Structure formats: C-alpha cells, structure tokens
TrEMBL record:
NCBIfam families: cyt_tran_rel. Its cofactor is a divalent metal cation. This is FAD synthase. GO terms for biological process: FAD biosynthetic process; FMN metabolic process. It comes from Candidatus Methanoperedens nitratireducens.
Amino acid sequence: MVRVLATGTFDLLHPGHLLYLSKARALGDELFVIVARDSMIKHKPKPIVPEKQRLTMVQALRMVDAAMLGSETDMFLPIREIKPDIIALGKNQFFNEKELEAKLVARGIEAKVMRVQAFEQGELCSSAAIIRKVLERNGKSN
C-alpha cells in the first residue's frame, strides 16, 4: 500500500486544488493531506477561510482518504505520524524538492518527494486570482 501525502493552504478551493490532489492521489493507494495552520503560513498572505473550515472542505473531497491540520510548531511532526511513501508537491509550491528530501532524511523520514507537474489553466484557478476578481467586481483594487 503506497501512502501519498499532499500539503497546502487550500484557501478558497478551486480547480487547481482539485487537479493537484487528484494527481497526487494517482501516485499511490491512499492520499493523506495536511492543511496548513494559519500560524505557520509565512510565504504568502494569511488565508481568508479559517483553518478548521479549510480542513472540513478538504476532508469532504472524495480523492482524500484522510486530512489533518498541520503542526503549529514543527511541520515535520504530522509527516512523521502519517509515514508517507511519497510527498507530492504542487507545481507552484515553494519547496525545493532536494532540500526537502535532505530535511526529511535528517529527521529519519524516508519518503520520496515528487512534484506534480500538472497545472490547471484558467482565469480563476488560484486563490489570489479569485480574490482579485472579487475586488474588481466590487470596484476595489489590491
């Protein structure tokens, strides 16, 4: 049984999220998802949707076997619990595959890191694009 792990913020679920998760699921037999905690998101603006609601939305997706919130202190703690065979990164996630693999090995976690190359094209296939569209419709710019 090959266990795949996907991670992300999953703010304002959109087709890009669905494509990433379905491609990640296709890499193995079961898909676990870690939803980022608000407190741990430092590389982009904080999510609009609260973390527990984002988790509920991800848990409801049929391609997801299990989902949980990430740790508020160490991103590797839930990875150690899940024990994935593969960690699937999205095409636009900021992680460097080799650096992540080295950090995993240093922590005794044996998981192959793979980048999902598929990317959903379209006007509203990112949370940022959805936010921009809402602001435009309401006569505001960001």
